Amino acid sequence: MNILAIETSCDETSCAVVQDGITVLSNIVASQIEEHKLYGGVVPEIASRRHCEAIAAVYEEALIQAKVHLADIDAIAVTYAPGLIGALLVGVNFAKGLALSCGKPLIPVHHIKGHIASGYLCHSALKPPYLALVASGGHTTITRVKGYTEFEVIGRTLDDAAGEAFDKAARAMGLPYPGGVHIAALAKGGDPKKYKLPFPKTENIYDFSFSGLKTAIINMLHNAKQSGNSESIDLPSLAASFQHTVCKILADKLLNCHSEIGNCDLSVSGGVSANMCLREMLPNAYFPALEYCGDNAAMIGCQAYYEFLAGNTADGALNAYATMRL
């Protein structure tokens, strides 16, 4: 079964052709990072406009690289929630028009389910039930994956997501967007134990809260600047300490949850799963290949296959939603 998948939830316009939920025939991603760098983060209106400009060409390139025609496609899949509403609407409306014009089934896919499914693209041994950590710019969750389309959220972020905390801390350090990759690069020359940073506590021990940690970094840098001692801050070590703390919070909560639940596999996905520090802390977990860590349509096509088998399709009334719980 060939599924054409579309992903436009944030600042990547992506289209992929995925066969039987596992074989990626193409995965085209048009990134807007260079433009959003000018503003220190994603500007929703700009993201929506760039999706409008890029989606037709990305769709055509996905078919060309997959060496298929639209007639060879069995279903159209699209991310419909959660994400930036304007960005989502571009993908949803393109997918609805495409499905209507060619008479193909339309499969709506939840963005976080897509991230979880990215592990299937790289690891044939990964099968439900298992425990999944999704850590990205907009989401941080621990989920019990009971089946390919059955999920139970055990912990979620109460404020900033892990990737968002990286972005905001990086901005405070004078680093460009996106923050994670630049903090990781700067941290290579630092001591991760030099600065003791807070480990925020939550009522549900498996929930996440990174706002206080981010604020601690901002306050430290602000106080040093106000007192004229900015040069006293060892930025590489501050970056290393921040990275280590975020990754330790993620890893500890996942491992503690795993100890309580019992014997099962672990998976980690989302943009932050590309972080090497996190990968070193969780050597026994399944991580997707780096190309599938960020937002991409291949993961949407993968999850769409299982949604289709479960009978989860939509019609022309499908809408986009900025927020939607898993």
What does this structure look like?
The protein has 326 residues and is of the alpha/beta class. Helices cover 41% and strands 19% of the residues. The chain is built from 10 helices and 9 strands. α5 packs across α6 (179-187). The two termini are 26 Å apart.
Structure keywords:
alpha/beta, globular, 41% helix, 326 residues, four-stranded mixed sheet, 9 strands, five-stranded mixed sheet
Provide mean pLDDT, rounded.
Answer: 96
Name the poorly predicted regions: none
As a percent range, the share of helical residues equals 40-55%
Q: How much strand?
A: 15-25%
Structural class: alpha/beta
Q: How many beta-strand elements?
A: 9
Number of helices: 10
Sheet with the most strands?
Answer: 5 strands, mixed
Global outline: globular
Strand order of the largest sheet: 3-2-1-4-5
Rounded to the nearest angstrom, the distance between the terminal CA atoms is 26 Å
SSE order, one letter for each helix or strand: EEEHHEHEHEEEHHHHEHH
The radius of gyration over CA amounts to: 20 Å
Gist of the model:
This protein has 10 helices and 9 strands. The protein is an alpha/beta fold and 326 residues long.
